[in-house]
Amino acid sequence: MRAPGAEPGRPELLCGEVRTALLHSYDPVPHSSAAQLLKLRGDAPVLLSERPNLHARSPEVLTGVDCVLPSVSGARTRCVGTVRARACVNDGRVLQAAGYFGVAVAQGGERRQWSHYLARPGTVETFGRLRHDDIVRGFLGTGQTAAGVLDAGATAERLLTRVTAHPALDGNRRVPFKSRRTRLRWTARAAPDGEAVIEGFTLAEGGLRTLALRLPASTLAAPGVVAAFCEDIAQHDWLLTNLVHLVERGRLGSADRARAVRSLSPAIDQLLHLWMPGARVAKELSPLWDVLEGEPGFSRQWQTLVQRIRDQLALHTISLLHAERVPAEHMTTH
Amino acid sequence: MTSVFHETAAEPQTRSVPLSHVSLELGHLYMEDFAGGPERLREHFAKIAPWAETARAAAAAAVPRGRPRISTCFLIDDYFTRFSSPAELVPMVLEAAKESGLVIDYLARESACARAGETDVARVVEQRLVESPAPGSDGRRPPAGEVGWLSNGARTPGTSPLDVPLQALSPRTPWQPPRETAARRHSVFVDVELWDEPEQRRVWSCPFLAAVWQLARLGLLRHRGEPLLVPQDHPGAFPEDWDALPSVIRLNERAAAFSAYRIWSLLPSRFLPVEHAVRVILEQTEVEPGPLAQAAERAMAEGITLPEEIPDRIAYVFLPES
């Protein structure tokens, strides 16, 4: 019934969803306030990191589930266990919430005492055969997750709502620009030859992205590390999505350059300095970033956009200088 | 390859605590026991003594090598009712135990399980509750918990204030029984009150404080990585005021560590429902991974396999009341 080499209780497959949004605040929040926003529990600290960028991460919270796994074939595989969720704030500007879980095969066919599942937090155990392909395709599918089907995105969304509703953000409901939210659904399963590879990265409609990974068993055993990699990809995809959008709305090259530059200023103030791919990615996963840099070429597109913005600024500066000089010349002729 | 760069605020830290092999709890003392006078206490310890000896022998036999480390403890309720004073009571308890050949290594105050110093100990544990999901829970909603209550299954529909609108819509819904989630065919459904708030002041229930107590005895209680209910040495004369007494005091200088891999509670049988409730709570408590891993690693180094589920680390002896 099981894949060869699989052990009961050991996750064979990881699934998760990251939701990325602009933090609801006009100015970036200071690092200490980010810690306040992410204090989901009093007993565990918010982890704060200042190098190579400002990153605050909440303690993880667990949600118990007893439902069926996603599937394209319509197989109703019951699973019981917990889903992890955590939120992070990057450079006081970008808010991310992630829900993720590992899938393992249960020993026996009955649901066990709940303490059994709490002893393996973040893992759901399935009864019956584990069809990896079916689950991966079901999880990465673009459709709505039906009721009764495990929804990692919903746990992430709940966290996102909770942080956004934090009283510390009250009275500061304005945002510097209209942003788009993105969600990245990801799966990771064992690599047949033990080498980490990206099987596919897809941009779908409605801000949905999907990422299918194959990873060595040692990496699969560290779900938090994989989730951090996916958060990093999600953040940079979000930055790119929003920068593209800002540049598009700026209608560069149109007659009113001052207006174009004005509409780009949120990008300059808020986004340009946030680009730092792979900043918090474990060494064993960093080669995967290189793959995405080759195709579709995240940084290539980002640099091109940044260059365009700087060109606009340069042209605008020149035209301002020119405009200043013209009246001055007028005065000398009279 | 290890990293050359570290940030302490970015890496979770867990301070470890010393661990015995077994901790034996020699009883809880409540107002009614005290009201029964020293005689009642002597009876209690006389009844406990042979079982304490048995538990000690069983615990020692399970230690694969080296000298068994076994400590004893005793809990006094100063939370629900304040009676007597440490100066009067503690020597009386110690004397009564001694008459039955029992040594109490550590003495703890129940109120410390609610609050110790600046820390809301009970809230720390409450925040770690992860409710067991009813079948059909898909992660969209957190379990439909009743505030201040925790059950081991699904309540009868329509019995919760949240269900009232539902009931109004279909007044003829037939009654459905509650159900224990992990039932073996038939249910033993338990709904545990964790606290109430008369006059806006939170009062934790006895089972909830007992769950905190058992976690402390297992060395699994932490607040931001720091252990809670750490024993302090005997302060000399016992004070007149309970608040002047440390949360947990060490009475015996040569005692093995307070916390242990496994714990035994030797209690009168009226505590059975309380301890059932404790198990319902502990079954739904997510213990911090740091102290769990520390205990597991050290046990393994001593050739001991620890049960991974917390309630399985607790053993009981329930004694007749009279």
From TrEMBL, chain A:
It comes from the Bacteria. NCBIfam families: SCO2521_fam. This is Uncharacterized protein. It comes from Streptomyces smaragdinus.
From TrEMBL, chain B:
InterPro entries: SCO2522-like. Residues 130-180 are annotated as: Disordered. This is Uncharacterized protein.
